[in-house]
Automatic annotation (TrEMBL), chain B:
It is a peripheral membrane protein. PANTHER family: MALTODEXTRIN IMPORT ATP-BINDING PROTEIN MSMX, OSMOPROTECTIVE COMPOUNDS UPTAKE ATP-BINDING PROTEIN GGTA. Residues 4-252 form the ABC transporter domain. It holds the Pfam family ABC_tran. Belongs to the ABC transporter superfamily. The keyword ATP-binding applies. The keyword Nucleotide-binding applies. GO terms for biological process: carbohydrate transport. This is Glycerol-3-phosphate ABC transporter ATP-binding protein. CDD domains: ABC_MalK_N (cd03301). It is found in: Cell inner membrane.
From TrEMBL, chain C:
This is ABC transporter permease. Coiled coil: none annotated. GO terms for biological process: transmembrane transport. The chain crosses the membrane at residues 29-53, 88-109, 121-141, 169-192, 224-244, 276-301. It comes from Pleomorphomonas diazotrophica.
Amino acid sequence: MSALATRPSPGLFARLGLMRPDLAIRAALAHLVLIVGALFVLLPFVWMLLTSIRKPEAVFTAGFNPIPDEFHGVENYSHALSQSPLLQFMGNGVIVCAAILALQLIFALPAAYALAKLNFRARPLVFALVLLGLTVPQQVTALPIYMGLAGIGMLDTYFALMLPFSLSVFAIFLFRQFFKSFPDEIIQAARLDGFTEFEILIRIMVPSARPAIAAFAVFSITSHWNDLYWPLVVTTSPEHATPPLGMMIFRDQETGSNYGALMAGATIITAPLVIAFLIAQRQFVRGITMTGVK
Amino acid sequence: MASLSIDRVTKTFGHQAVLKDVSLDVRDGEFLTLVGASGCGKSTVLRVIAGLEPQDSGSILIGGGSVDHLRPKQRNVAMVFQSYALYPHMTVADNIAMPLVMQRLRLAERLPLLGRLSPRRGRVMAGVRGEVEAVARQLQIDQLLARKPAQLSGGQRQRVALGRAMVRHPQMFLMDEPLSNLDAKLRVHMRAELTELHRRLGSTFIYVTHDQVEAMTMSDRVALMDEGRIVQLGTPNDLYHDPLDLRVARFIGSPGVNVLPGRVSASGAVEVSGVTLPVEIEAEEGTSVAVGLRPETLSLDAHAGHPRLAARLHSVENLGAEVFLRLILEAGPSEPVILRTALESYERSRHHGSLDGVIQVSLDARRATIFDAEGRRIARRPVEAAVVRLSVSAE
Amino acid sequence: MAVLAAPGAVPIRRLSSQSRVEAFTGQMFALPALLLIVGLLLVPILVVAVLGFSDYQLGAIEWSWIGLGNYERMLDDPVFWRSIGNTFLYVAVVVPGSVLSALVVAILVNDRKHFKSVYQIIYFLPVTTTLIAMSVVWHFVLNPQLGPIAGLLRALGLPPVDLFGDLDLVLIALSLIGIWQLVGFNMVLFLAGLTAIPRDLYDAAAIDGADHPWDRFARVTWPMLGPTTVFVVVTTTITAFRVFDTVAVITRGGPIGRSEVMLYAIYLEGFQYFEIGYASALTIVFLVVVVALAVLQAFFLDRKVHY
C-alpha cells in the first residue's frame, strides 16, 4: 500500500533526482513484502528443479543444503523418461486437449452465433440452459456419464476422456457475448451481398472472434491438460493416461525411492504449460482469468 | 483568493518535454484560460499548479509565496476535472463534504467505527453538513443531496463537482476542460453560468480548454499554448485581432482565418493573389509571407481604397443572420477562402446577379495580419490607425 | 429520405422470408449444442437426482428405490459430516487467505515502477502449472525428514513438523497449497479492477486532502474495488469447494479422515466403492451448495454495483 502515497512535491530531492525519503522507504518495504511472497510462491519450483539434478542419495542428506554438490540431472531425467512412459502421457495430453478444443469450437461457435444474432423461437430456452450449465461443475455429471460409457464398453479410451467436455457451455456463453457486440450492419450487408448464414459464420464471425478464440483455447487447454478428476475416473491403464494421471502413476511407482527422478518427472510434466505461459504471458493471463470457475 | 505566478517551469515525461520554460502571471480574481490543441501541455500546467505533478524546474507561487514544497491539499486550490471525478459510491452530500471532512477530522477520527468514538466528530460533521447544504443551495442542487452520481445528469454532476470545489473556499479554482463532457446546448448554458459564478465568487479561475469559443467567451485573458510553450497571452480581442503568431491566428476564430501566400514588393508592400496590399512592412523585398485574412475582412461590397480580388463562388453556408461564402480566388490557392457577410448584403448581391461568374471581392488591408515564413508576425512600418485603435481597446 | 429509411420499408414478404431463414438456420446452428447440453448435462443431472433415491450399486442386478434413504444415511455417516466440515474449514481458510493476500499483492504490484511484470509472472506461475505435479513437489518440500522446511527447522534447532501427518495441521497445510495456487489468479483480477479505477479519482482525493495511504485506500481503492471483490470472493469460494487434486495426491483423506473433503468422498463412494446411489445423493448435496453460491454471486453482483 506504500506508494498509494502522494506524489512527491518538487523540492530538494526531486531536483537531485531522488525520491522523497519517506516514499523511498515505503517502496523498499513494498518490495520486501513482495519478495518474501515471491519466495514462498517460487519455493516448490526451485526445490523441484534443484532436486531434479541432485543425486538420489544426496536427497536424504540434503536437508537445507540447497545447491547440489554434483550435477546428476542427466541420470534423473533419463531415469524418469525410461522408468515411466512420460512422453506417452504427454502425447495423450496433446491428443485429448486438441480434440476437446476442436470439438468445443465446432459445437460452440455456430450455437453462439445463433444465440447472438439469429432470431428463433427456442433461443431464450437454449440460452437459459447455457446459463444453467455454467453453474454445474463437471463432477456432478461424472457418475451417469461414467455409467453410460461403462454400458457401451467405452471406458479407458480417448473417446471417454473427451466426451464430457465436447460441449463447453462456457465457450457458447463467451462467444455469444463476443458476437453480440458485433455490428448488425455488417451482417446485414453480407446478407445483401448474398452470403448464406453459414458463410457469414465462417467468413465473418469466426475471423472476428479470433482474440476470443485464442483466449478460450488457452483456458480450455490449461484446464484439460491439468484436469485430474475425470481421467482418474475413466482411465485404468497407463496407455491412455493424461499427464496428471501419469504423474500419479509415476509417483506411486517411485514412492520413497528416487526423489531425483520424481522431481525430474514433475518438471517434465509442468514444463510445456510453464514455457508456453512465459512465451505468451498476456494471452495466458487473459485466457485463464476469463472465468473465475476453473 | 490569490494571484499566481508560474516561473520558468519545465516538465519532461520520459524523453518528451511537455512544458518548455512556461512563465505566466495571473492576477488575483482573474479568469484566465489556457487554450490549445490536445497535447500542448495545458493540462500539465494545471496539474503542476495543483501539485499533482512535480515540475522538473522552475517554481509556482500562489499569493506571492512558493508552494513547491506543498502537497496538493496544502496548496488550498480546488480542481474541477473533465470527468468530474466524483466518488461513485458516495452521495452528492458526501462528495461535496469530502474536502471539509478531510480538513477537519483527524486521521483517527476518519477510521470506520473507531472514528465514531471521538466526541468532537459529531460536532464537526454537523458543521460540515450545514456548509454543504449552503453550497448546494447556491448551485440549486440541494434537492439532489441524497442521490449518488450515477443517478444524476451530466449537468448535475458538473454542479456537484463545482460544489465540491466551492465548499472549501479555495484560493483559486483550477478547471480542466470541465464542459467537454456536456452536450452542445448545455455547454453554452454552463458557459454563462461559470462566468456568472466567477463574477459572484471573485476568485481566481484558471481554466483549461481546447475549445477556442470557450476561451474567447469566458476569459479575462487567454494564454494560447502549443508544444509546451505559451505562444501568446492576451485578451480575447488581442488574440483575435492582433495575433502575434500564425498558430494563434489559425487556432482562434471560427470559421478559421484565411491564409494566403504573399510576397514583399520593393516598396515594402505585400503582393497577394495578384493585388498589392497598401501596407508597408519591415521585411526585405522578395520575402515570402503568409497573409492572414479574417472572413469579415473580405466583403462583397466595394469600399474606397480596398483592393479587389477576382473570385468564383464555390459554396454558400447560410446561418440565417450571417452568411459564409466559400470562394475560389482566380489568382490564388485552389482551396477556397471564406467570406463572412450579413444576410442583406448577400441577398442584395444575389439579387443583382453579381454572384454569377467572376465576383469582385474587396479586402480590408488594414485588418490583414502578415507573418513571416516561421509564422511570426511582421510589424508594419508606419503604425496604422487600426492597430492603434485595437491595442487601445485591449488595454 | 425515403431511400434512407429503407431497412424499415423493405417489402414485407422479403422480410418474412429473411426471418424464416434466420429462424431455420438459428435452430440448425443451435441444435447440435442443444443435443449435447441435453445429453451431457440435463439427462445426467436428472439421472443423478433419480439415482439418489435408489440403492443402486454398479453392476448390481437387484436394486430398489429407497426414497430418502441415502439422505438419511448421510445424517448418520461420520465420513459425510467430516467431509462437509473439512471442506468448509478449507474454504474458510483458503478464501480469506487467498483473497486478502491477493489484494495486498495486487495493490503493492500495481504501484511499483520497477519489476512490476516480474512480480506478476512469478505470482501467476502456480496458476498455469499442473497442480498434481506441484502437489507431489509440495508433499516433498514439506516432508518432515527430507524437505527444505524440515532442514531449515533442524538448522534452527527446532523439531520437524509432519504437516500432512498431523491431525490438526493437515487441513492447514492443504489450505496453504490452495492459497499458493489461487493468489496469482486473484491478483490478476484485482489488478484489472485497480487499473479500471480512474486516475482522476486519486487526483481529486489528493486535492480534497485524502492523500494519506489509508485515506486513499478507504475512500477510493476499496469502494471502487467492491464489485471485483465480490466476484473474486465468490469464484474463489466455488473453486475452494471443489478441492480434490491435493487431497487425492497427498493425503488421500488421511490421517484418519482429517482431510476428507466433499469431492473426494463422492469420488470414493462412486468410483472406488461403486455405491452409485449413495454417491448420487452426495453429488446432489454438492450441486446444491455450488448452485447456491452461484445464486448468491448473481444476487450480490446485482446489488453491489453502486454506479
